[in-house]
C-alpha cells in the first residue's frame, strides 16, 4: 500500500484583521512543526540534516 504525502500548509499571513484568531492558528502551526520552542524561548532551531530537500529548505 502506498502512502501519499501532502505538502505542509503554508503559514498564515496576518492581514490586519482577526489578530486573536491568527495568534491561535500560528501557535498551532508552530507546535505542529516543533518550532514553538524556538519562538517562545528564543533559541536556535536545529540545523538541517545533510542533503536537505527543497521542502526542508523552505
From TrEMBL:
Pfam families found in the cross-reference section: DUF4219 (PF13961)
Stretches assigned to the DUF4219 domain: 14-40
Protein name: DUF4219 domain-containing protein
Organism: Gossypium stocksii
